[in-house]
Amino acid sequence: MTKEEERALPIGVFDSGIGGLTVAREIMRQMPNEKIVYFGDTARVPYGSKSRDTVLKYSQQIVRFLLEQKVKAIAVACNTASAYALPVIEKDCPVPVIGVIRPGARTAVDATRNGRIGVIGTEATVESGTYPEFIHGIAPMAQVLSRACPLFVPLVEEGLWEDPVTDEIARRYLAELMDEEIDTLILGCTHYPLIRETIGRVVGDEVTLVNPAYETARTLQELLTERGLLADHHPALGEVTQYQFFVSDMAEKFRRFANSIIPYGILSAKVINIEKY
Ligand code: DGL
Predict the structure, then answer these.
(1) What is the pLDDT of residue 238?
(2) In contact, 166 and 174? CB cutoff 8 Å
(3) pLDDT digits (tens, 9 = 90+) for 138-172
(4) Using CA positions, which residue lies closest to atom 6 of ligand 1?
(5) CB-CB contact of 127 with 226 (8 Å)
(6) CA of 251 relative to ligand 1 center, distance in Å
(7) What is the four-CA torsion angle of 61, 66, 69, 70, rounded to 10 degrees?
(8) How far is the CA of 6 from the centre of ligand 1 (A)?
(9) Which of 35, 137, 180, 242 holds its CA 20 to 30 A away from the CA of 12?
(10) At 13, is the secondary structure helix, strand, or coil?
(11) Average pLDDT, whole number, for the chain?
């Protein structure tokens, strides 16, 4: 394959379901020339309450599927999969792989003034200790305070983005972190940027909210540039193949949700049998 052909290949993005669309959206915004193949594991979501072994097995199956689609790089959009599976996947993957945790940790270290950083995520992400590990790798003296917020994912999926119930749950989850006087908070789960307003209201203006999706897309762009893989051809307007969506179940529900997040009409999402990979 020529370098030009390689540059024109899509980026693979995957998540346990719909949440990773917040990462795909950033990639679309920051790199409009790129094609994307997105896989959402809607049959096996959530990953956040599953074991390391299960999340690793699922992630490896998805990587095999994406490689079959001939992607030039893979973005692990899911925080839980980045925490549990990325170190294994990146070892033997023939294309560059990037997760969301390292970029999120770096941004938080840059943002904090008092060295007290809060991290919120799924139970698995918090349990893994990956955010504190990366933060301490850059800033050994930083204080990292973590809190699992398992109800946020179903609240977002129920569409309760702006709702008194979500405000109340957020107040309960975030009270301890506020008592610890954090000045920076990492939204360490794909769904949380969608309730950013609520979280921001609860923690107040003095706390900087870090959305790892933004930084992940930026880091991916740097990586593709370094390797000479950045797409240089702008796909024709409305080119149907620029963004392709695959799921393991519930394609119509995915499509409806995707259309509320992504600013381009999602034409369709195709169901595949991920278990065969
Ligand atoms: N995508 C997951 C994450 O970012 C949240 C949903 C789930 O638990 O699968 O950790």
Answers:
(1) 56
(2) no
(3) 999 999 999 999 999 999 988 999 999 999 999 99
(4) 46
(5) no
(6) 18
(7) -120
(8) 31
(9) 137
(10) strand
(11) 94
> How many A from CA of 136 to the centre of ligand 1?
23
Query: Distances in Å between the alpha carbon of 169 and those of 39, 154, 215, 242?
Result: 30, 12, 27, 38
Q: Is 79 near ligand 1, meaning CB less than 6 Å away?
A: yes
Residue 56 main-chain phi, psi, to 5 deg: -65, -45
78 is catalytic: yes
List the one residue out of 217, 244, 195, 266 whose CA is nearest residue 19. 195
The answer, yes or no, to whether the previous bond of 94 is cis (omega within 30 of 0) is: no
Asked whether 103 lines ligand 1 (CB < 6 A), one says: no
Q: Of the residues 9, 21, 55, 78, which is catalytic?
A: 78
Q: With beta carbons less than 8 A apart as the criterion, state whether 103 and 148 touch.
A: no
Residue nearest to atom 7 of ligand 1 (CA): 46
List of domains in the chain: 3-99+215-276 (3.40.50.1860), 101-212 (3.40.50.1860)
Residue closest via CA to ligand 1's atom 2 equals: 78
> Could you identify the atom of ligand 1 that is nearest to the CA of residue 46?
9
Atom of ligand 1 nearest to the CA of 83: 10
Which 8-state DSSP code applies to residue 128? H
* Among 63, 70, 71, CA closest to 88: 63
Q: How many CB atoms lie within 10 A of CB 54?
A: 14
- Whether 193 is in the pocket of ligand 1, judged by its Cβ within 6 Å, is no
Does the annotation count 149 as an active-site position? no
Exposure b/e, 105-120, CB count within 10 A at least 16 = b: bbbbbebbeeebbbbb
Per-residue pLDDT reduced to its tens digit, 43-75: 999 999 999 999 999 999 999 999 999 999 999
Rounded Cα gap, residues 78 and 72, in angstroms: 19
